[in-house]
Design brief:
Layout (H helix, E strand, L loop, with lengths): L12 H14 L3 H15 L21 H16 L6 H12 L2
Family: Belongs to the RelB/DinJ antitoxin family.
Protein name: Type II toxin-antitoxin system RelB/DinJ family antitoxin
InterPro entries: Arc_rbn_hlx_hlx (IPR013321), RelB/DinJ (IPR007337)
């Protein structure tokens, strides 16, 4: 049997429990999953998945406070006065491209 070394990690209890449930369904012990992850780091010479900030989603206007709504409307009015406008079609194309809307 190959020599082993211990790895200690602190994780949120809820995340650990959810991961254990998934791994149980897959029939993979937690220690094997951690070993697989570390082996992939070695093979990939880095984190074996993309690490990036979450995608920005448009904010629902109704979720803003009245003050925030007023500030957003004022920004929009300032853009109109400054001639920073876009056609409705270009806005729809951009929303579809960026957010799948």
């Amino acid at each position: 049997m190959a020599r082993t070394s211990n790895v200690f990690a602190r994780v949120e209890p809820e995340i650990k429990e959810q991961a254990e449930q998934v791994l149980d369904q897959l029939g993979i012990p937690m220690s094997n999953a951690v070993s697989m992850f570390l082996r992939q780091i070695v093979l990939q010479r880095g984190i074996p998945f993309e690490v990036k900030l979450p995608e920005r989603k448009p904010v629902a206007f109704g979720s803003l406070t009245k003050e925030q709504q007023d500030a957003e409307l004022e920004k929009g009015m300032a853009d109109i006065r400054a001639g920073r406008t876009h056609s409705a079609q270009s806005v729809m194309d951009e929303l579809k491209r960026d957010y799948g809307v």
